Amino acid sequence: MDYKEVLSQARTHIGTKCKACEICNGVACRNRMPGPGAKGVGDTAIRNYDKWIDIRVNLDTICERTAIDPSFELFGKTFRYPFFAAPIGAINLHYGEKYNDITYTALMIDACAQAGITAFTGDGPDPRVLQSAAESIGKAGGVGIPTVKPWDMKTLLEKLEMVRKAGVFAVAMDVDAAGLPFLKSMNLPAGRMPVQDLGEVIKAAGLPFIVKGIMTAKGAIKARDAGAAAIVVSNHGGRVLDQCPATAEVLPEIAKAVGGSLKILVDGGIRSGVEVFKALALGADGVLIGRPFVPMAFGGGDEAVRDYVAKIGGELEDTMMMCGAFTLDQIDRSMVRLPG
């Protein structure tokens, strides 16, 4: 499906808060919450996008004619590309009525599995959201990563038991969700989590555990010491704190601190396969992409989601070919040029 046509169609369904922009850079929705925007003036979401664009890739085509292999392995499963769909929640609140959390999640799990990647799924106050996600992941053969909020211990243990029964291969927690306005306004048992409590949760999960919401080397070390198998360098798209650094700015120092001791994923403003390449060059093992998937679903359903995956994947393969990297492990810091 044509990308621009899908966006045009999405605008007829997606409500008033998201503009289904051709370039999802946080400008048009900069201070809209609820909506896809960010806290405060929206500085963090915009900065996420801008800082990836500031990084340049180094063209080098004097190399062997070797087939490009962008496949990615995570916890014993191999995927077609090193990027996944990020968890998106509160669909009705932020985007419109065409889908809700349950139907959007089911579509994303199925479409991403067909496209050769996987989807992280969201969580919320309604227990049916995670329950339905677990069921959809089970139907997809366990290919999906449920993401729980930093609830109180009792609630977390109940939710982890639920997703374990679905046969998932990994589970995640977005620890930075403690700053989401809709959670704070509802006075729910969710918030910051001490290292010891995080360690207990990870142990209870009994699965490879991904901690999402890491923005410092110190935080990455704490997640690793608690037993995390992976982290996601993320500021929640700017939705939890204004005037944060961009994920591109902190990724290199985090990779230096914990690279090789756990898997490092990153999200925030990554909008093309070129930027996926940049993230890998700066030390990430893989990437999450969130907001751009929503207008794909609203504008063209599972077909548009699959086509979007192919679009990003094709851009990544083209960048690898033009920069002299034929496998993901050949992508390194020498292949990008940082500003300044």
What does this structure look like?
The structure is a single chain. The chain has 340 residues and is of the alpha/beta class. The chain is built from twelve helices and twelve strands. An eight-stranded parallel beta sheet has the order 4-11-10-9-8-7-6-5.
Sum this structure up briefly.
This protein has helices at 3-10, 43-54, 91-94, 101-115, 127-139, 153-165, 181-185, 195-205, 217-225, 247-258, 273-281, 293-323; strands spanning 56-57, 72-74, 77-79, 83-85, 120-121, 145-148, 171-174, 209-214, 230-233, 263-266, 286-289, 336-337.
Number of extended strands: 12
Strand adjacency order, main sheet:
4-11-10-9-8-7-6-5
Shape: globular
Question: Segments where pLDDT lies below 50 for 5+ residues?
Answer: none
Report the portion of residues in β strands.
Answer: 5-15%
Largest sheet: 8 strands, parallel
Residues in helices, as a percent range? 40-55%
Secondary-structure-derived class:
alpha/beta
Distance between the termini: 39 Å
Mean pLDDT score, rounded?
A: 93
Rg (CA only): 19 Å
How would you spell out the order of helices and strands? Answer: HHEEEEHHEHEHEHHEHEHEHEHE
Number of helices: 12
Q: How are the SSEs placed, and which strands pair?
A:
Elements (H helix, E strand, L loop, with lengths): L2 H8 L32 H12 L1 E2 L14 E3 L2 E3 L3 E3 L5 H4 L6 H15 L4 E2 L5 H13 L5 E4 L4 H13 L5 E4 L6 H5 L9 H11 L3 E6 L2 H9 L4 E4 L13 H12 L4 E4 L6 H9 L4 E4 L3 H31 L12 E2 L3
Parallel strand pairs: 4-11, 5-6, 6-7, 7-8, 8-9, 9-10, 10-11
Antiparallel strand pairs: 1-12, 2-3
Helix pairs in contact: 1-12, 4-5, 4-12, 5-6, 6-8, 9-10, 11-12
